[in-house]
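re: ur question from yesterday

yeah so i grabbed the chain u mentioned. its 302 aa long if i counted rite. heres the sequnce exactly as i have it in my notes:
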Amino acid sequence: MKRFSDSRFRAIVCNGNWSSCCLFALSVFIVGNVCADASVWSVTAGKNTLYLGGTVHFLRASDFPLPEEYEQAYQASSEIYFETDIGAMTDVSVQNQILEQLTYSDERTLKTVLNQEAYTALSDYVVSKNMPMLVLETFKPGLLMTTLQILEIRSMGFTPQGVDTYFTTRAVGDAKSLGQLETVQEQIEFIAAMGKGWESEFVLLSLQDLDQTLELMDDMVKAWRVGNNAELEELFVDDMRSQTPALYDALLLQRNFKWIALIDQMLLDGDTEFVLVGAAHLVGEGGLLELLAKKGYEIKQL
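ran it thru and got these C-alpha cells back, copy pasting raw so excuse formatting
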C-alpha cells in the first residue's frame, strides 16, 4: 500500500461530501431476501405528499443504476432536501473550519488524550496500513476514526459518489429547488463531540469495527437496495443504541426529532418534496418512519 503524505490526508479529509460521509461512516461502523421494495417511502397528509429516501453516501460504480423507486420519487418532486448543503463542502473556508474544529490547537495530542491501551492499538493499526502516525496526532477522535473508516471503505472500491451526491448533481441540472435539514456547522459539531469524555473507549470500539468493514458494507448495500428495514436496523442502530447510547441519542435520535418538525412544515404546503437522509435515520424505534406513523401520517413503501 502506498504511504500517505500530510497533503494527501488533508485532501481526503476535505473532499466534497466529507461531513456527511463522516456521519455515515460512524453510523455504519458502530454498529436479504430480494423483493420489489426499495428504501423509498411516500408520506401523505390529506392531499399533500412528500417522499423519504434512505441514502448511502459511499457506493461503487456497480451499485448504479439506483433502484427505480428513487427515480420515481425524484421525478414526482419539485424540491429535493438533503441532510446538509453538500455543495458548501467544496468551499475553502468550510474546509478550514472543519480542520480548525476537529483538530487539537493546544498542547493536547492523541498520545496525551488516549490511555496506553488505546494509543498502542491505534499505533499498531496505523503502522499496519503504512500510514504516518505523526499526521494523525492532532486529530480529535471523531475526525480520526471517520478518516480511517473512509480510507478503509475507499480501499474497497467505494467512492463518495453516493445517493446524495448523485441527486445533488441531477437537481442542479434540472433546476429543482434544493434544501437542507441542518447546517454544515451543525454537522461539524456532531463530529467534534464524538467520543468526547470517553475518547479511549471510543477509539478501541471503532478499531474493532474496522476489521468487519467489507462484510458490513456488503450487507448494508444489499439491505438498503431492497428496503429491508429489519436488517438495516440491525446493522445501523442496534449496537449503537446498546453499546454507545449517548452517541445514538446525539447522532440519530435528537436529529430525527428536529427533522420531524421540518417535515411537518413540508406537509403543510402544496409542493412535493423528496427528502434524502442516511438510511440509519429511517429505521427502528425513534426512526423517522416510526415517528411519522405515530403522528398519523399515511406511509407507504414504494
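noticed a couple things. The radius of gyration is 19 Å. also The longest strand covers residues 48-55.
anyway ttyl
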